[in-house]
Amino acid sequence: MTELLFRNDAYLKSAVGSVILVSDQSGIVFDKSVFYPNSGGQAGDIGEITWFDGNCCPINNTVKTDDGSVMLMASEGAKLPAVGTACQQILNWEKRYRHMRMHTALHLLSVVIPLPVTGGQITSEKGRLDFDMPDAPEDKQLLEDQLNNLIAGDYSVTTSWISDSELMENPGLVKTMSVKPPIGTGKVRLVKIANDSQIIDLQPCGGTHVQRTSEIGPITFGKIEKKGRQNRRVSIRLS
User: Fold this and answer.
1) Separation of alpha carbons 204 and 175, rounded Å
2) Are 38 and 63 in contact (CB under 8 A)?
3) Rounded CA gap, 165 and 153, in Å?
4) Do the beta carbons of residue 217 and residue 77 sit within 8 Å?
């Protein structure tokens, strides 16, 4: 499986990896990856890879393979590196950083709206969570103000690890009903948003996040849409 460099350092913008597989669909698997694959509602990273003699290949998407490896999807018709080639992986940092800001903002949205989450999506432009919410909120502006107050609180965002069995013994940590927690490897990554005296949020997550909530910046609420008998979709945008 690919070594997930982004998991230990979401701010790593480039890294060298060796090609271990090239697929018939222009997908490239490396022994280690700074690119995050499309998973958990977060869009896959884009960017480029370069290798000797000035070769360059645009990466239009990143996906997860059936065995859990990370596959970088090259542009159609692009020249691809051979297996064994050492390549420099270079993120489109602007998009990745917006994903990090939005993903962290959605964690805080689940605090402002403390209801079961039934779905979600993260892009560089907007994000949304679907909630088990039979009735629409009475004051959308109040929710927006509460979310922005948490963001401005400049809470730290840190990670830690627990075992699969520890997660099973603490089911209240799981907020998302539609996405299974990242289990199966024997350990689960927890993302904590907190200050010295208070934990704001703690839940399992394999995505990328900022280090401080103040990095998110102001958030604007979009529509709150009814999706089924009990589901409502809450969309937010980065300023």
Assistant:
1) 9
2) yes
3) 33
4) no
Largest CA distance in the chain: 61
Query: pLDDT digit string (tens) for 129-171?
Result: 999 998 989 899 999 999 999 999 999 999 999 888 888 888 8
Q: What residues of the chain score a pLDDT lower than 50?
A: none
Element (H, E) at 201: strand 199-204
Domains and CATH numbers, the chain: 3-91 (2.40.30.130), 96-238 (3.30.980.10)
49 beta partners: 57, 89
Q: Which tokens belong to 36? A: 């995050």
In a 3-state reduction of DSSP, which class is residue 142?
helix
Residue 230 is given by DSSP the state: S
d(CA 150, CA 213): 8
Q: What is the three-class DSSP state of 159?
A: strand
Residue 160 has what pLDDT? Answer: 93
Whether the CB-CB separation of 102 and 215 falls below 8 Å is answered with no
Q: In what order do the strands lie in the sheet with 126-132?
A: 117-122, 126-132, 231-238, 219-226
Tokens standing for residue 89: 């992986």
In the structure, how many helices (H) and strands (E) does the chain have? 4, 15
Residues in the chain, overall count: 239
When the pLDDT of each residue in the chain is averaged and rounded to a whole number, the result is: 93
Tokens 């020249």 found at: 79
What pLDDT is attached to residue 179? 61
